[in-house]
Design a protein that fits this description.
It is built from nine helices and seven strands, in the order βαββαβαβαβαααβαα. The chain is an alpha/beta fold. The protein has a single domain, classed as Rossmann fold (3-Layer(aba) Sandwich). Helix 1 packs across helix 7. The longest helix is centred in the middle third of the chain and has 29 residues. It starts with a strand and ends with a helix. Bound molecules: NADP nicotinamide-adenine-dinucleotide phosphate (NAP). NADP nicotinamide-adenine-dinucleotide phosphate (NAP) binds next to helix 1 and helix 5. The site of NADP nicotinamide-adenine-dinucleotide phosphate has 29 residues, from helix 1 and helix 5. InterPro entries: NAD(P)-bd_dom_sf, SDR_fam. Keywords: Oxidoreductase.
Length: about 270
């Protein structure tokens, strides 16, 4: 059984995954800012850790606590993230930097902090939550997709350079998953567009997004939790797990369709 740290454990995919892995018998530290939302998982054995992935001090404190308690870390699951949707002209560079801080640099810093322990153990797994959105781009999602494309590149590079130390790196690429993610992204989209040139399209797209995330079409977080459990438990974890609503067909369509046709589909998707 493994000692696991998972970020973004207060909600959605992270919450479900922390619960499932703890029930499998792993020692799971669930981290997030809203640590009170993780306490219900204490009954399953999940240990709540306060964590803001944008704060270096907070990241260091989380790793120090885990190592002090367990003396090792076997698996890091970088899952915390949100969608900063909005037209490029509308989203401030300050917000774009925040999007990168949460979705990329938080994962990068946490990776740096756990690597010395994993190298010393000559074993470890780092599982990074990207998205199908790390391989294709949806309407008005420039900064979100820029972070997820970056997560893909970062993880591919990390996998190659840590292989010799016995460390394995996997990417989780969810499709549409029924969590708060879509509502948070829609809120960002509407707020960024208020009173501007893109307001009409943005409002329409946000309404479509909310409708989609309220529908039964999307996959449940358990679908992703299962894929993450494979990356944790399989003897030979895969570099990529592309799973959940729309993921495989859309990535396939992106690969075979002319760019303008794919653009058209994405612009009219919601
Ligand atoms: N749902 C989808 O359709 C979908 C599709 C593809 C990829 N994903 C990715 O899957 C991951 C999980 O998303 P989800 O769908 O489960 O959304 P969610 O329900 O909104 O959960 C997001 C989690 O990220 C955490 N988080 C956000 N900002 C943080 C910060 N600064 N520090 C620490 N934690 C932070 C939140 O915790 P606190 O706010 O409590 O800190 C929360 O636990 C994200 O990386 C997302 O981009 C989701």
């Amino acid at each position: 059984m493994s000692v696991i740290l998972i970020t973004g454990a207060s909600s959605g995919i992270g919450y479900q995954t922390a619960q499932d892995l703890a029930r499998q018998g792993h020692t799971v530290y669930g981290a997030a800012r809203r640590v009170d939302k993780i306490t219900p998982l204490a009954k399953d054995g999940v240990k709540p850790l306060p964590l803001d992935v944008t704060s270096d001090a907070s990241l260091q404190a989380a790793v120090t606590t885990l190592i002090a308690n367990e003396g090792r870390i076997d698996v890091l699951i970088n899952n915390a993230g949100y969608g900063s949707y909005g037209a490029v002209e509308d989203v401030t560079i300050a917000e774009a930097k925040k999007q990168f801080d949460v979705n990329l640099f938080g994962m990068a810093r946490l990776t740096q902090l756990v690597l010395p322990y994993m190298r010393q153990q000559h074993s470890g797994r780092i599982i990074n939550t990207s998205s199908m959105g790390g391989r294709l781009v949806s309407y008005m999602g420039a900064w979100y997709h820029a972070t997820k494309y970056a997560v893909e590149a970062f993880s591919d590079a990390l996998r190659m350079e840590t292989k010799a130390f016995g460390i394995q790196v996997s990417l989780i690429e969810p499709g549409g998953i029924k969590t708060n993610w879509g509502f948070i992204a829609a809120d960002h989209l509407v707020a960024s567009a208020q009173g501007g040139a893109y307001e009409q399209q943005a409002t329409k797209a946000a309404t479509g997004m909310r409708r989609q995330y309220a529908s039964k079409l999307l996959s449940q977080p358990a679908v992703i939790s299962k894929a993450i459990a494979k990356a944790v438990n399989q003897r030979h974890p895969r570099p990529r797990y592309l799973v959940g609503f729309g993921a495989k067909p859309l990535v396939f369509a992106k690969a075979i369709l002319p760019t303008r046709l794919f653009d058209f589909i994405m612009m009219h998707a919601s």
